[in-house]
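[job 4471] stage=fold_predict status=RUNNING
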Amino acid sequence: MNNKSLDIGGALSSAFAGPVEEDSAPVNVLAGALASHRGTAQKGALEDSPYLLAVRQAVAGLRAGSLPVEDYYVEISKVHQQISALIGLFEMQQVQRELALAGEDHQVLAGRTQLHLEQIEQALGRLVHYLDTQDMADLDEGLAQVEAGYLALDKTQDEALQMVEESDEDDSEEEDL
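[job 4471] inference complete, writing C-alpha cells
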C-alpha cells in the first residue's frame, strides 16, 4: 500500500523560519515533499529560530529591566499567536483528511508535533502568568519548558525530514527498476 506522504518536516521548517509577526503567511502543513523539502543537511539550526529567540530575548530583557512589562507581554503574545495558529491547523478538516490518508508513521509524527506545540503553548502561558505572580519560578520554568518544547519539535522535524528523504530515495529506486 502506497501511503500519501505528509511533509510535517517542511511545515516545521517554515514555522521555525517565519517572521514573528501577526501578519505572517500561514504555514502549509500539507505541502508536498518536493515543494518544501530542503533535507536534513540544509535544515536551519534551532538556535536561529526567531520564535525561540524572541522568547529568550523577552525573558532576558524582563530580567535585566531593559524591557518594559508591556513589551514583554506583546513579544510573548506574538509567539503565542503563531503557536496557536499552528495548533489550529491540526483541527482543520483538510488536515484531518490528509492525516487519515497518511501512513501510521506520518500520523505519529503529526501527533507528536501537535503535542509539542501544545506544550510550548502551555509554557508560554506560564511566562505570561509570571506577570501576575512575580514568581521567578514561573519565568525560569516557563522558559525551560519553551526551550524543551522547541528541542522536541526540532527532533520531530529531523525525523520527519528523514522520513521524507527515505521516501524520496525509495521512489527513485522504484523508478530505476
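[job 4471] summary: Residues 1-6, 12-38 have pLDDT under 50 and may be disordered.
[job 4471] exit 0
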